[in-house]
Design a protein that fits this description.
Layout lengths: L1 E3 L15 E4 L2 H11 L11 E7 L2 E9 L4 H4 L11 E9 L7 H16 L5 E8 L6 H5 L3 E7 L3 E3 L6 E3 H6 L3 H4 L3 E2 L3 E8 L16 H5 L4 E2 L2 E2 L3
Parallel strand pairs: 1-5, 5-6
Antiparallel strand pairs: 2-3, 3-4, 4-5, 6-11, 7-11, 8-9, 8-10, 12-13
Length: 228
């Protein structure tokens, strides 16, 4: 999931080649994510935090970790070892970053993963087309689309306005209350990127054409429904 912080002017002379991507502490990553990600939340089980710097200032974050529902996700690529996949579970970029910074940052991040974690064969990420977007940057970065589904997993607390995932509600032991909340309308899209190209041959689900997004009315950009 990715968002961009509104109301900032990008630095006019900078390009995506000027950004620097490197590991950072969880505390720094979490702080920026809470400030600029549309959800205002971090994923507690994130394990690898990469910062995106421009002119020496932290302007973006990518956070990786195991999926919340790993048992239900790992089997989409047969023969995957328990440590053989990871989720890009938060991606938040400031509007100060130049155009195409997302694609550039992911390219560098994937090189870091290949070099330091060669056992990881593939990456999964989900686009929230109920509140944010349908995954434009994932498509540009070489991910394949493997699922589009109506989302009823996110519901809004009528008292606080907080949007919560069904798995979060389960962990907080408020599943019964959660089911009474109004679900957000929209879709969730699942994308996969293969660090090991050979793992693509073991994909157990179909690769969907990107045109399917518009066919199903699942298009969304920056929180606004996108017409077919």
């Amino acid at each position: 999931m990715v968002t961009r912080w509104p109301a900032f002017v990008r630095l006019s002379m900078a390009s995506a080649k000027d950004i620097i991507v490197k590991p950072i502490k969880a505390s720094a990553a979490n702080k920026l994510t809470k400030q600029i990600h549309y959800s205002g939340k971090v994923v507690p089980n994130s394990q690898l935090h990469l910062g995106v710097y421009l002119n020496g200032k932290l302007e973006g974050v990518m956070q990786f970790g195991p999926p919340i529902n790993k048992k239900g996700t790992i089997n989409i690529v047969s023969g995957t070892k328990w440590s053989g996949m990871i989720e890009l579970n938060r991606m938040a970029f400031s509007e100060r970053l130049p155009r195409n910074s997302e694609s550039r940052a992911m390219s560098v991040a994937f090189k870091i993963l290949k070099k330091n974690y060669p056992h990881i064969e593939w990456i999964v990420s989900f686009s929230d087309a109920t509140q944010c977007g349908d995954g434009t940057i994932y498509r540009a970065a070489g991910f394949v689309l493997t699922d589009i589904r109506k989302s009823d997993a996110l519901r809004k607390n009528p008292e606080t306005g907080e949007v919560m995932h069904v798995i979060q509600a389960h962990h907080k032991m408020i599943s019964k209350e959660f089911r009474t909340w109004e679900p957000t309308e929209g879709y969730q899209l699942r994308y996969v990127y293969f660090l090991n190209p050979k793992a693509k041959d073991r994909l157990t689900v179909p690769i969907l054409p990107f045109s399917k997004i518009d066919e199903m009315g699942a298009g969304m950009y920056k929180g606004e429904k996108r017409d077919k």
